[in-house]
Amino acid sequence: MTDAGGERAAPRWTGNRVLALLVRDVMSRLLALIPLAVTLVSCAQPTSGAAPGTSAAAMPGFVGGACRQTPDSPPLGMASGNLAVRPDPVLIPGQLPKFLWFVRVPHRTEPLRLTIDRLDGPGVGRVVTLNAVRGPMTDLPAGWERAVAFASNLMFDQPGCWRIRDADGTAEDAIVIEIHRP
User: Fold this and answer.
1) Fewer CB in a 10 Å sphere around the end CB: N or C, the chain?
2) Are 90 and 69 a contacting pair, CB within 8 Å?
3) For residues 21, 24, 29 and 30, what is the CA-based torsion angle, rounded to 10 degrees?
4) 33: which residues sit within 8 A by CB, 6+ positions away?
5) Distance between CA atoms of 91 and 60, rounded to whole angstroms?
6) 3-class secondary structure for 10-63?
């Protein structure tokens, strides 16, 4: 814009132009906050593999002085991630209970490697290797048709809250069980 003498005139500030500049400034500041908001929201989400709508406090583990076992998921037994187990009904230290393990998505390697850790006190972490059970699998729910089964006898030397995890799987491929006092 030029005036009558050919000089550049100062822009005229109308109400709409001021409003547009103000909105643009506010929007740019809000957009700058998006990465911070995303970071805060992701930090607030449970990282323990909780299903949507499930609080981290309800997740299996040793919480508030109590052992929260992995919930039963018939017909598999206890299931979490790609790992499931059908344990004997009562688990007591010193006994040799039978466990039938299932891995929903088989690994490239045949054996199943389980890490065993005590959650509520001192305990010896160990790794157990199991070979697959041969034969047809029946009574497996949808999504588990290709599962591979592994049989084991795991002895626990003391009562407590124990996590048994697929060493070659993800953090969600873990079962929490409680071994009771005799």
Assistant:
1) N
2) no
3) 140
4) none
5) 17
6) CCCCCHHHHHHHHHHHHHHHHHHHHHHHHHHHHHHCCCCCCCCCCCHHHCCEEE
Cα–Cα distances in angstroms (integers) from residue 56 to residues 48, 114, 128, 173, in the given order = 7, 24, 28, 16
DSSP symbol at 9: P
Alpha-carbon gap, residue 61 to 175, rounded angstroms:
9
What are the tens digits of pLDDT across the range 137-176? 777 888 888 888 888 888 777 889 999 999 988 989 999 9
Q: How far is CA 181 from CA 49, 78, 94, 110, in A?
A: 30, 21, 10, 35
Contact 46, 55 (CB under 8 A): yes
* Cα of 97 vs its chain's centroid, Å: 27
Alpha-carbon gap, residue 46 to 119, rounded angstroms: 19
Residue 79 β-bridge partners: 84
Residue of 86, 63, 57, 52 whose CA lies nearest to 175: 86
- 0.85 exceeded by pTM: no
Q: Nearest to residue 72, comparing CAs of 83, 82, 86? A: 86
Among 90, 70, 89, 88, CA closest to 79: 70
> Which stretch of DSSP H or E encloses residue 128?
strand 126-130
